[in-house]
Amino acid sequence: MRPAAPLWVLLPALVLLPLLALLPGISHGGGWELVGEFAAAALQPSLEPLVVGSVLGGLGVTAGIALLGWAASLALGLVLGIASSRVVWHTCCGNAAPASWIRRLLALPRSIHELLWGLLLLQLVGLQPVVAVVAIAIPFGALVARVVSDLLDALPTANLEALRCGGVAGPAALVTALGPPLLPQVISYSGYRLECALRSATMLGVFGLGGLGTELRLTLQSLAFRELWTGLWLLLAVMLLLEALVGWLRRRWAMPARLGLHRRGVGRQGREILVASLVLLPSLGLVAWQLGIEPAGLLRWQGLPPLGPADWGAVLALPWASLAGSTLLLTLLAAALAVGLAPLMLLVAQPCRPLLALVQGLWALGRLWPPPLTALLLLFVLQPGLVTGALALGFHNLGILGRLLLEAAETSGAPQQQALLAAGAGPRLALLYGRFSSLARPYLAYGAYRSDVILRESVVVGLVGATGLGSQLLESLSSFAGDELLALVLVYAALTLLGEDLSDRARLWLLETPHGDGPPQEAGGAWR
Amino acid sequence: MAPLLVLDNICVRGRSQHRLDRVSLQLEPGERVALLGPSGAGKSTLLAVANGLLAPDQGSVRWQGQPRGRTVRARRRQQARIGTLWQDLRLIEELTVQQNLNAARLAVWGWPRALLNLLLPLETAACAAVLQRLDLDPALLNQPVSALSGGQRQRVALARLLRQDPLLLLADEPLASLDPRLAADLLALLLELASPPRALLLSLHRPDLLAGFDRVVGLRAGLLVFDQAGSSLETSQLEALYAGAERP
């Protein structure tokens, strides 16, 4: 008995059963009234000029941080990505070994979540706008570097070899042969990174690094739900606009989609792309000036409270096994919830347009609503702990996976689904059999990658307690326990790298087509 | 006995011109009808109206004397008796042959059986029977479709049609990408499967293969040009039908 492909995508949803069984045990029911008020406030957000003004100001700061962090990560990522590409080193120096050294070095900044970078920098240099920008730029830059080098090394090298044989110098041959196929993939990927940067900038704000997130958290904690919704609706509008813009540009410039089953001709409208990037540069400077970004501020370290002598005995006495175990359990729960629920919801809602719109709205909320805030909201009715953290992380990632799944389901052609419909099958069964069959492998491969992100991200719900390494880290940070912090960051990073390796293996296994019909169905490494 | 399918005055609008323009067509049980016409004449559109994938902008469709179902359920019950052989076959690559054959029963199966079919081999005897009817080895049932050869896939697609047990067989240029011998074999098989009371409506490009058909219908630019017995078709009519178009 081996479940067939369409069932694979539904199986993770089985995690709902134990979760539903656990929920009565951890709910305290004290705050249902508050949740009701929160929901009711959605329909009547505060429109007072003072509130709207402050929300707009916060949104501006968040968007500015996202834009600058994103641009810096792209610049960093491109340079480092080229520097860690085997084919580049091989062509220019005849030896690819340095590429793998740089690649290994980059694993560390990549494995530490932007929140940790932000909090660490905050301790070192105090609160300044540049902290959030750099906190985003470091891990994102290392991630972009990996994607760029993966993309570069996966490109066919026939053209490059032909140029080299013709006596063209290494760098010139690289730019000519690999530049044109690389560029569309990098541009497509960078659009997606901008969406991620906006989410991250909001999330950093929740932890006090400035911008809208700070106001969202303050209004939530002071139960000012109408003011909270003013911020949420505006953030939703900005995020949907950004997603629509990125999607439109991707189609207009014929860039590959992330879960694309069909490769299309890529890279059109070169002049427009050039103009867009020329407009972008001065506007970045303007934004930096508006936000008062001062890179030199990073060098002025503030006096740290005196660190006690390291007590490694106490560090070793931490319950490491249970910390790592809880972190992994949290990750698995959240990942299964997100991966399994998205197709289930699509299946239930798809034939009914209004219901589908509702589900899409819920997903959009999940994407923009930072997980630590969901966790705080859940605390109104649930006890703090691992399940609460998993629900918060799961909801956020459900939004991301759901959108991706719907995008893929709507863009890939559906001849099989049509054939089933023509033979009288119901719309849901036609979707399950006709569409999920071919989507199963790429979707789950993306889910494997997403689980790796969730592992890294689990620190952000540490504030609900008992989530393993994440909550311990936040605790050590606030008690200035430098020795603990160092050990925790290293263990976390090691765990993340292990998780990354595991998810890469799972992804490759999933994308390996059993009967060798064509190359793996994904757009290079741009799903990352 | 009521006609199987009646298309009455069907119009389907396209971007610049009508894809179908006031087309009327009637199919009796057991009839075998060939649909001729150059590319873009509206053959595929006509078949899509017939199998219910496309609702016409004007005109009415009657199935066994009843109007096309108003409720979703009634329409699906009618669609369950209309089987389509697609040019690209539209088999589900990721599933086994047996799961593909059973997918033809989704119109009448509920969710429990549809899900179980993805987990266990269901109704093996019935599936083996349709494979044998098409001279295929029942051992293929457990094979994933992606592991089959081209000829086997064609026959599995036909077996899936039989498994659906339709009263009307529609086929959209099934012979287009086949060499002459395979095309003749497949056509013979289709004509044989369309034994009364089953009817067959098949679109094709090959005026030389009309021998087994009771009637021939010509479409050009969305208009029905002729509808008559195959034996009475004149060469001049064919030439007029394809005039100005690239000959197949």
Compressed to H and E, one letter per element, the order of chain A equals HHHHHHHHHHHHHHHHHHHHHHH
The CATH class of the largest domain in chain B is identified as Alpha Beta
- CATH topology tier name of the largest domain in chain B: Rossmann fold
Globally, the shape of chain A reads globular
Determine and state the CATH class of the largest domain in chain A. Mainly Alpha
- Supply Rg of chain B: 18 Å
The backbone outline of chain B, from C-alpha atoms, is globular
| CATH homologous superfamily classification of the largest domain in chain A | MetI-like
CATH homologous superfamily descriptor of the largest domain in chain B: P-loop containing nucleotide triphosphate hydrolases
Determine the fraction of residues in helical runs of chain B and give it as a percent range.
25-40%
Largest sheet descriptor of chain B? 6 strands, mixed
- N-to-C CA distance of chain B: 38 Å
How large is the share of residues in beta strands of chain B?
Answer: 15-25%
Provide the number of structural domains of chain A: 2
Mean pLDDT of chain A: 81
Structural class of chain B: alpha/beta
Largest interface: A-B, 30 and 39 residues
Mean pLDDT of chain B: 88
Radius of gyration of chain A: 24 Å
Straight-line distance between termini of chain A: 33 Å
Counting DSSP H or I runs of 4 or more residues, the number of helices of chain A is: 23
Tell me about this structure.
The complex is a heterodimer of chains A (528) and B (248). By secondary structure, chain A is mostly helical. Chain A has two domains: 56-259 and 266-299, MetI-like (MetI-like fold, Orthogonal Bundle), CATH 1.10.3720.10; 312-511, Orthogonal Bundle (MetI-like fold), CATH 1.10.3720.10. Chain A has helices at residues 5-10, 16-26, 32-41, 49-83, 86-93, 97-111, 114-125, 129-154, 158-165, 170-206, 212-221, 225-252, 270-291, 312-317, 320-349, 353-368, 371-378, 386-411, 415-422, 427-434, 436-457, 469-478, 482-511. The two termini of chain A are 33 Å apart. In chain A, 48% of the residues are buried. With 248 residues, chain B is α/β, with parallel strands linked by helices. Chain B has two domains: 1-81 and 166-248, P-loop containing nucleotide triphosphate hydrolases (Rossmann fold, 3-Layer(aba) Sandwich); 91-165, no CATH class. In chain B, 31% of the residues lie in helices and 24% in strands. In chain B, helix 3 runs parallel beside helix 6 and helix 5 packs across helix 6 (150-164). The A-B interface holds A 1, 3-7, 415-416, 418-426, 429-430, 432-434, 437-438, 440-441, 513-515, 517 and B 48, 51-53, 75-84, 86, 88, 90-96, 99, 103-104, 106-108, 111, 114-115, 118-120, 144, 146-147, 164.
